[in-house]
Amino acid sequence: MTSTVVLPEVPGLGGLFARGAGLSLARRVRSGPTVLPDVEYVVRGVRASSEHLTDYQHLLGESASDVLPAGFVHVLAFPVATALMVRSDFPLPLVGLVHVANRVTQQRPVLLTDDLDVRATATDLRPHRSGTQVDLVTEVSVDGSVAWRGVSTYLARGIFLAGSVDESSETFAPPTPTGRWTLDGDTGRRYAAVSGDRNPIHLTALSAKALGFPRAIAHGMYTASRALADVGARRGDAFEWAVEFVKPVLLPGTVTVRVARADDGFTFAGWDARSGKPHLTGSVTPLR
Amino acid sequence: MARPTPTPEIRKAYVLGGNRIPFARAGGPYVRASNQDMLTAAIDGLVARYGLQGERIGEVAAGAVLKHSKDFNLTREAVLGSALSAETPAYDVQQACATGLETVVSLSNKIRLGQLESAIAGGVDSTSDAPIAVSNRLRRALLDLSRAKTVGQKLAAVATIRPKDLAPVAPNTGEPRTHLSMGEHQALTTAQWEITQAAQDEIALASHQRLAAAYDSGFFDDLVTPFRGLTRDANLRADSSLEKLAKLKPAFGLGLDTPATMTAGNSTPLSDGASAVLLGSAEWAAAHDLVPLASVVDAEAGAVDFVHGDDGLLMAPAFAVPRLLARNGLTLDDLDYVEIHEAFAATVLTTLAAWESEEFGRTRLGLDGAFGTVDRAKLNVHGSSLAAGHPFAATGGRIVATISKELHRRKTESGSDKPVRALVSVCAAGGLGLTAILEAA
Which residues of B are catalytic? Predict the structure, then answer.
């Protein structure tokens, strides 16, 4: 029987990270639970502010319409899933979790004036060749029906809860570029300001070094959301937006990108022109 | 798709003359001259040449691509500073590098409709005196500061300013949506169509040689007014050679997996300059003892989705020209002159290659085969932007005035009634293109 935790409002990510950091240490040194808690987290009546929306749209290169970009809905809703991830019975440590993939299904537009009900669950704890993966599923409903559904896949490296598997990674051949993202050193701080995700790996070289990165890295959702903005209005009102994060983007940095029409929508990729190695790949497919 | 119908017969609008100042290289003799200075100089030269002192012209339209916000009424201010009657109305136009040609098209349409009897079209650009803006974050903080009422609000606004925000923001040729420069975009198209450096250098050399020949023969004597000590376009290299051009190092396309072929020699330099074109009805021309040179027959704009890689940034004319000619019942063979703005030599060559391609003709233009071939002898006969330079909004006026004079010369020389036609094609930022047909009067 799934238990429901109703939060009065969307929690701040800062407090959740602090809580998660404490728990993560404990989770790394002693064995914890090996199954996901059967629980859903719910926040009702969430509203976006127009100033927050405008800041987000300007940063990501979206038109400043009253329709919430799919990545902005993620920003509003995902802290509810994070609250679930810092429970003492959540089996993976928050610190060190890597966002490896994200899939959003936008069924219909979500508007600035809509009251949003957010529901978050964790599912599909599964082995991966370098650790354990889990899906955080966030649903956003308006007037009782789901308008937006996000599945965020996280990987806990080096934590093997259910054996290991061998997966071969696909090879990437850089295509003809259509554009370039020149990312300043403060890209992580600027996305942190609109997303609330102030994970130290995104903020400064120093704080990122402390956590094992040579420099600060861009938020995966920042790069995925820029690709979605590059697709533009032709994504339509209803679409699926899928992305795999392959290799972090070090800041400051330059990402060569291709965002182009494919058979049934758009595909996108961002890569390092010098090494030819991909940072992210994905697609935006209109729903029919 | 509904078949486009030919334009109904209405009265004609004529190019009556033109004037420009020589184009300078950025940082050259016009370094301190503003857009308003240069546009006023170009208009005043036109006024002097055609005796328009104190004349109330129907309307003046001009524009600049790099325009400061204080120049919100650039053209009107230039008119007020010129020898024209102060009762001459004016408006600004901005369509990237197509600005100058668009002023010719829209004003000649007003003349054809009978709204105007006379008009002056023009354009100007300065990369030396380019507007520099403050960063968005500083601008926002300053605007918040100006709205703040209490000391606390003022301090809060100031506190958001970071040292980095103080760096000025200069305009660049990067596309806002792709952040690739125009040269990088063209390099992708150049690679796609497998255009060699040798082919580009030939276009560049022809441009220099033909422009130099035109100056030497006195062709530009009544089209160009010296300014700031410059009597010819500063970029013109009459002594250029294929050997010299071949030695230049590639400037664009360096990161691609195909050889980089675009050099400073076969790309236009950043330039300063201004141009103006006098337009009028037959009646107005007769009343002012002016000889119509050419009529502006029709025009077609185009745009491509370069953002998603469907077509190259500067390829819109490749689509607009076939539509334009079809509407007028013409083919490339019916043209006596083809003026394709040389943003880069490769832009000309990729456009020609697309028209010669069976596959492009079938799949992208919806034709039975290739659109056609342009006889190189008809192409940019008095040189183009590679030699003259390219002050963005001034290029359309340069081309229209030059080719109109040439059309009239040819028609007069031939003495026959056979139409003499020119195609003008200008590519522009944002994946835009503007094309027009002129016919000798």
Answer: 97, 390, 427
Average pLDDT over residues B226-253: 96
Structural class in CATH, domain A168-288:
alpha beta
Contacts with B188 from chain A: Cβ below 8 Å? 176-177
Nearest-angstrom CA–CA distance, B89 and B79: 8
Task: Evaluate if residue A166 carries a pLDDT over 60.
Answer: no
Whole-angstrom distance, CA of residue B338 vs CA of residue B296: 15
Rounded Cα gap, residues B121 and B434, in angstroms: 15
* Cβ pair B177:A266 closer than 8 A: no
pLDDT in tens, B113-141: 999 999 999 999 998 887 777 888 888 88
Residues 209-248 of A with CB under 8 A from B: 230-232
Q: How far apart are CA A93 and CA A90, in angstroms?
A: 8
Nearest chain A residue (CA) to B191: A176
pLDDT digits (tens, 9 = 90+) for B41-99: 999 999 999 999 999 999 999 999 999 989 999 999 999 999 999 999 999 999 999 99
| CATH 3.90.190.20 correct for A1-161 | no
User: What interface predicted TM-score (ipTM) does this complex get?
Assistant: 0.84
CB within 8 Å of B260: residues ≥ 6 apart: B187, B250, B251, B252, B253, B254
Domain boundaries, chain A: 1-161, 168-288
* Residue numbers in B near A271 (CB within 8 A): none
